[in-house]
Design a protein that fits this description.
With 360 residues, the chain is an alpha/beta fold. It has a single domain, classed as TIM Barrel (Alpha-Beta Barrel). Helices cover 45% and strands 13% of the residues. The chain has a six-stranded parallel sheet. A two-stranded antiparallel sheet has the order 1-2. A hairpin with a 7-residue loop joins strand 4 (108-109) and strand 5 (117-118). Helix 7 packs across helix 9, helix 9 runs parallel beside helix 10 and helix 14 packs parallel to helix 15. The longest helix has 27 residues, at 188-214. It starts with 5 loop residues before the first strand and ends with a helix. 44% of the residues are buried.
C-alpha cells in the first residue's frame, strides 16, 4: 500500500518540503530547519554555485552539516528523511526554490550565505503570449539536473530526495513579477496561458525526476506545491486562477501536499478540502485549526510555527501555543523552519521537549 499522507521534511540547509509519511508519525511531531546562514555562521559553509552544481562537494558539506546537528542536538532527529533511511539525501535543497523559473530560462543568482534566487528579468506581455511548455529533453537546466542525478546514482546507487517545484503563483511571480497580480484583474486570459504553461512544466519535471529515481529503486509518486503567495490574492481569485491547476497537479499523482507558509489559511480552506488526493496541508497559528481538522481529516496536518515566535516568545507562551495546537489540530507536525543563527540551541531543545511531552 502506498502512503496516503505526506509529512514535513527539512533537509540540512534546504527550504522546507514534504516526504512520504511512514504512518507511524508521533502525535505531535516537531520538524526543525535552519537557514543556510545558520550553517554559514557555524561552519563557514559557502552556498554559492558550487554547492548547487557539484554533487561530490555537496555530499561532503551535507555530511559536515549532519554531524554538526547530531553534536548540537543529541537524540533529536533533525534533517533526516527518516530514521530508517540509510542512503544520504544529496538532492533536496539543490537550486533552492528556483528550478521551474530556471527551466524557463530565468538566471539563478547564487549567494554564499543564503538560498539562491532568480534575477528580476520578468516576461513582458508579448513574451507571455508566445510562451510554451519547454521541451525538458532539450532544456539546458533540466538536462544539467539529470546529469547530477546520474552522478548521485553512480556515487551511492539510489537517488533519494526532492526538488522544490514551488507552486503555480510562486513560479508565475518569478516569471512575470508583481504584474501578475494586476494581470488577474485586467488580463485573465494571459494569466491562464501562463499558469497552464507552468502547470504542465511542473508536472513534467516531477514525473521526469521520479522516473529517474524509480530506475534506482526509489519510488516516489506524489506532488507537493507551495502556495506561499496565496494570501496576496482573494479566495475568489484563488478559485478562478489557481485552484484549477492545483487540481490538475493533484489528479496527476497518487498524493498531493499543499504548503501555505505561516499564513492564515481560512479563506482558502474549503477549496483545499475539495482537492483530490490531499495528503498534507499546513498553515499558520492564526488559522481556524479546528475547522482544518474537521474539513481535512485524512490529510497529515502541519502547523508552521514561525522562527520569530520561537525566538521572541517565552517558553511559557510557546507552551500555551502548543497546547492550542494539540487541542484543535493534532495529530500533526509542528514545523519551525528558517531558524537563524541568533536563536540559542537551548531554546530549540526546550521547544522539542515540549512537543515530545505529548507523545509519552
Amino acid at each position: 500500500m502506498r502512503p496516503r499522507q505526506l509529512a514535513s521534511y527539512i533537509a540540512p540547509s534546504a527550504p522546507a518540503t514534504r516526504r512520504p509519511a511512514s504512518g507511524g508519525e508521533p502525535f505531535l511531531r516537531p520538524e526543525i530547519g535552519f537557514t543556510p546562514d545558520w550553517y554559514h555562521a557555524k561552519l563557514g559553509i559557502n552556498f554559492d554555485r558550487r554547492w548547487h552544481s557539484d554533487v561530490t562537494y555537496r555530499g561532503q558539506v551535507i555530511q559536515k552539516m549532519s554531524e554538526e546537528l547530531k553534536n548540537r542536538f543529541p537524540g533529536i532527529s533533525i534533517g533526516q528523511i527518516s530514521q530508517e533511511q540509510e542512503t544520504p539525501d544529496l538532492l533536496t535543497g539543490t537550486f533552492g526554490c528556483t528550478a521551474v523559473a530556471a527551466i524557463f530560462g530565468v538566471p539563478i543568482v547564487y549567494v554564499e550565505d543564503g538560498w539562491p534566487t532568480t534575477a528580476p528579468e520578468y516576461l513582458s506581455v508579448s513574451q507571455v503570449e508566445r510562451l510554451d511548455v519547454p521541451d525538458l529533453g532539450d532544456n539546458t537546466f533540466f538536462s544539467n539536473l539529470m546529469i547530477q542525478l546520474d552522478r548521485i546514482a553512480e556515487h551511492q546507487g539510489q537517488i533519494v530526495g526532492f526538488i522544490n517545484w514551488q507552486g503555480i503563483l510562486n513560479n508565475a511571480q518569478r516569471l512575470r513579477g508583481p504584474d501578475i497580480f494586476t494581470d488577474m484583474i485586467d488580463k485573465p486570459d494571459l494569466c491562464h496561458h501562463l499558469f497552464g504553461c507552468i502547470c504542465r512544466t511542473m508536472i513534467g519535471g516531477m514525473l521526469g525526476l521520479q522516473e529517474r529515481q524509480r530506475s534506482t529503486g526509489v519510488d516516489y509518486q506524489f506532488a507537493t506545491i507551495s502556495n506561499c503567495c496565496v494570501n496576496m490574492i482573494s479566495p475568489d481569485h484563488y478559485a478562478q486562477f489557481i485552484l484549477p491547476y492545483d487540481t490538475q497537479i493533484a489528479e496527476s499523482f497518487d498524493v498531493i501536499g499543499i504548503h501555505n507558509c505561516a499564513w492564515n489559511a481560512d479563506p482558502y480552506m474549503e477549496y483545499y478540502a475539495d482537492i483530490p488526493n490531499l495528503g498534507y496541508i499546513d498553515m499558520g497559528l492564526r488559522s481556524n485549526l479546528a475547522q482544518a481538522r474537521e474539513l481535512m481529516p485524512n490529510a497529515r496536518r502541519a502547523l508552521m510555527y514561525t522562527p520569530m515566535d520561537l525566538e521572541s516568545k517565552s517558553i511559557g507562551d510557546i507552551h500555551d501555543d502548543i497546547m492550542k495546537i494539540v487541542a484543535c489540530y493534532a495529530p500533526c507536525d509542528i514545523v519551525v523552519a528558517d531558524i537563524d543563527k541568533d536563536v540559542p540551541d537551548r531554546k530549540i531543545i526546550e521547544f522539542v521537549k515540549l512537543c515530545q511531552r505529548y507523545n509519552e
